Amino acid sequence: MFGFLIALIVIASILLIVIVLAQNPKGGGLAQGFSGGSQFMGVEGTNKFLSNTTWGLVGFIALASILSTSLNPNRSAEEQAPQQIEQPVQAPSTPAQ
Known about the structure:
elongated, mainly alpha
C-alpha cells in the first residue's frame, strides 16, 4: 500500500508540473494553441479547468503525503510512540584521598 501511494504521489507531481507549465499567467496558455473556430471550452473554460486541476492535484499530493507518513513500514516502534525515559542522575565521584 505504501509503495502504491508513493507511485500515485509521483504521477500526480508529474501531472502537476505539466499542467503548471501549460498555463499562461496572461491568459491563453493551453487554449491559445487551439484557436480554431471549434473550441471545446474556449480560453476561459480551459484556464478555469487548468486552475481547478492544479488545486485538486495540490490537495491530493498534500493529503497523500500526510497519509504516507502513517503507512510508512520503515518507522520503528520508538518513532511511532515516542516515550521520554528519564535517566537517573549520578552524583560525581570524588577521588579517594
